[in-house]
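Session log. Operator J.P. requested a structure for one protein chain; no other inputs attached. Running the standard single-chain path with token output.
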Amino acid sequence: MVFAAKVADVPDWGKKVVKVEGQDILLVKTKGALFACETECPHKYAPLEGAVLREIGTLSCPRHGYRFDLVTGECQAHPEFNLKIYPIEIRGEDIYIDLA
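Structure written below.
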């Protein structure tokens, strides 16, 4: 596990791109639940920093609306596209990510 950010750095119902060991990671917080995923949609590589958050634990691509489960990375409508999800651990006010 590698330190990524402080919990307070990610706004509720918001996103923040952080660099962890040279790799860009998107942190997402929905109603207090934190998630970490890749920064681009696996469909057409749209930047997910502009993604829409409408439901807890779901991210919608801003370009074509593909919806990804932030726990599993699955896209129900298009199962051939999976978002890379990184396990996280909260230690006090710190967010740690497993890049393996």
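Operator note: The beta strands are 2-6, 14-20, 23-30, 33-37, 58-60, 67-69, 88-91, 94-97.
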